[in-house]
C-alpha cells in the first residue's frame, strides 16, 4: 500500500476516533465515581442534535458545541435521579436512557434531516502540519481534534493530582470509607454523572458539527456502545483510551474506504467490522482479567441515609 494511502488512513483514524474518545473519557469519569451508565449512545445522540440545532439558531459552532455537552448532561441527570434518588437498577436505567435519548433525538431531529449545518473545519497548524508523516496525521484537523489531544492528560491529572479527583475515585472504590472520612458520597457521584455526561455530549456534538456537518437519523451508529467497551479495554486509564479510540476509528475509516473502492467484499461484512472488534475486545478483556481493574463499588447503589 502506498505511503500516501497509509497516512490518509491514519489521519482518518484520528478524526473518526475523536468522538469515541470524548465519549469514552466521559463514561470513564462516571464509572470512576462508582456509577455505571449504559446510556452513552442515547446521550451522544441528544448531544449531537442539541449542538446542531443550537449552532444553526445562534450561528456559533462553539455555543453549539457547549450546548451538546449540556443537553447530554441533562439527560445523564435523569440517570442520576433514578440511580441516586430512587435507588434504581443502574443497568436498566442506562439501557432506558439509550432508548429514550435515541428516540427523542430521532423524533425531534426529523425536520432537520439533510440540513447543512455550520461547524468546525480543518485548520492545519503552522509548522507542525509540515512535519513529514506526523504532520498530516496529527496536525491537519479541526480545532476539536486538537482539544481532544490534551483532554486525556487533563483527566489523568484530575484523578491523580487534585483533591476533588481523589475524592471522586474514593467514592467509586469504597463509598463507606469515603463517608466515614466526611465526604459527600451522593454529591460526588452526582458530580461524576454530570461531568461524564457533558463529555459524552461533546463527542456527539463533534459528529454533527465537525465530522459530517449535517443531521441524519442514527448519527452515532453504535459509537456509544463502542465507547462503553473501550472503558474496559483501556483499563479505566485515559492514556489507553486514546489508543483504543484511534484503533476503533481506524477500523471504521478502513471499512468506509473499502466500500468506496467498490471491493467485492459484502458491505454488510464491512459494516460489521467495528462491532466485531468491540466483541473481541470485551472477550479479551475478560480473559486477561482486565475487568478486575474496575472501581470496586461500580454499579453499587448507596442509600442516601447511609
Automatic annotation (TrEMBL):
Compartments where located: Cell membrane
Record bears the keyword Transcription: no
Membrane-topology annotation of the record: Multi-pass membrane protein
A GO CC term assigned to this protein in UniProt: plasma membrane
One Pfam family here: BPD_transp_2
Transmembrane segments: 6-23, 35-56, 62-84, 91-113, 133-159, 190-212, 218-236, 266-284
Keywords: Cell membrane, Membrane, Transmembrane, Transmembrane helix
GO molecular function ontology, one term from the record: transmembrane transporter activity
The protein, known as: Nucleoside ABC transporter membrane protein
UniProt organism field: Desulfonatronum thiosulfatophilum
Amino acid at each position: 500500500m502506498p505511503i500516501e494511502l497509509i497516512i490518509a488512513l491514519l489521519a482518518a483514524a484520528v478524526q473518526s476516533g475523536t468522538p469515541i474518545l470524548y465519549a469514552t473519557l466521559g463514561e470513564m469519569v462516571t464509572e470512576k465515581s462508582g456509577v455505571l451508565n449504559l446510556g452513552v449512545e442515547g446521550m451522544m445522540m441528544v448531544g449531537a442534535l442539541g449542538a446542531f440545532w443550537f449552532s444553526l439558531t445562534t450561528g456559533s459552532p462553539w455555543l453549539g458545541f457547549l450546548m451538546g455537552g449540556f443537553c447530554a448532561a441533562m439527560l445523564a441527570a435523569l440517570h442520576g435521579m433514578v440511580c441516586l434518588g430512587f435507588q434504581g437498577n443502574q443497568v436498566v436505567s442506562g439501557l432506558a436512557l439509550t432508548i429514550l435519548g435515541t428516540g427523542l433525538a430521532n423524533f425531534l431531529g426529523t425536520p432537520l434531516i439533510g440540513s447543512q449545518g455550520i461547524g468546525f473545519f480543518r485548520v492545519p497548524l503552522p509548522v507542525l502540519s509540515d512535519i513529514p508523516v506526523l504532520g498530516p496525521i496529527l496536525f491537519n484537523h479541526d480545532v476539536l481534534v486538537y482539544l481532544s489531544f490534551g483532554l486525556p492528560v487533563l483527566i489523568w491529572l484530575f484523578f491523580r493530582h487534585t483533591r476533588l479527583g481523589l475524592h471522586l475515585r474514593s467514592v467509586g472504590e469504597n463509598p463507606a470509607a469515603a463517608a466515614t472520612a466526611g465526604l459527600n458520597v451522593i454529591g460526588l457521584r452526582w458530580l461524576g454523572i454530570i461531568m461524564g455526561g457533558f463529555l459524552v455530549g461533546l463527542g456527539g456534538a463533534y459528529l454533527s458539527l465537525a465530522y459530517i456537518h449535517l443531521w441524519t437519523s442514527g448519527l452515532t451508529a453504535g459509537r456509544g456502545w463502542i465507547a462503553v467497551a473501550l472503558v474496559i479495554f483501556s483499563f479505566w486509564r485515559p492514556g489507553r483510551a486514546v489508543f483504543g479510540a484511534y484503533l476503533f476509528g481506524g477500523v471504521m475509516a478502513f471499512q468506509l474506504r473499502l466500500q468506496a473502492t467498490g471491493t467485492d467484499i459484502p458491505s454488510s461484512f464491512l459494516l460489521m467490522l467495528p462491532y466485531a472488534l468491540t466483541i473481541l475486545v470485551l472477550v479479551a478483556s475478560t480473559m486477561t482479567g482486565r475487568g478486575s481493574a474496575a472501581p470496586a463499588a461500580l454499579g453499587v447503589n448507596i442509600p442516601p441515609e447511609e
